[in-house]
Design goal:
By secondary structure, this protein is mainly alpha-helical. Helix content is 75%, strand content 0%. The protein has one domain (34-128). The protein is built from five helices and no strands. α3 (38-58) packs across α4 (69-92). The longest helix has 29 residues, at 100-128. The model has no long low-confidence stretch (mean pLDDT 83).
């Protein structure tokens, strides 16, 4: 296992943590953002990217098989991280709170990342890394 392969996942997890650490009063709010639920799309998007980076970091042919034990374990790990970020906001940051819908969006994004990986990226690994 190469450490360099994990750097994007680690760096992206840090970016997520930093974004989650922004005080509530400093987060811009717009009426139109709430109408189209842009916030939930952003949550799903950043966790889809995290899932892709995690799968890239692991980079095993085992992940080529959809719903392998390894890919499900990595998915579970990303979902737990999404839950931890919500709890962190609730208990440690003023003006922030845990939102179950944000957690659902985080989890949905991780699942989307897994599906994207299995649909597109696994073929790339099959051709170039095995």
């Amino acid at each position: 296992m190469r450490i360099r392969r994990w750097l994007p996942a680690f760096a992206w997890a840090v970016v997520i943590f930093v974004l989650c650490s922004i005080p509530g009063k400093d987060i811009p709010t717009q009426e139109w953002m709430q109408i189209i639920s842009l916030d939930k799309l952003v949550h799903a998007g950043i966790f889809a990217v995290l899932m892709l980076f995690v799968l890239h970091g692991y980079g095993s042919s085992d992940l080529i098989k959809p719903l392998s034990q390894t890919s499900l374990l990595l998915l579970f790990s990303v979902i737990v991280y999404g839950g931890v970020t919500e709890l962190y906001q609730h208990y440690f940051l003023p003006d922030r709170f845990a939102d179950v819908y944000d957690f659902i969006a985080n989890s949905f994004g991780a699942i989307i990342g897994l599906l994207i990986y299995h649909r597109y990226a696994s073929g790339f690994y099959r051709r170039f890394y095995n």
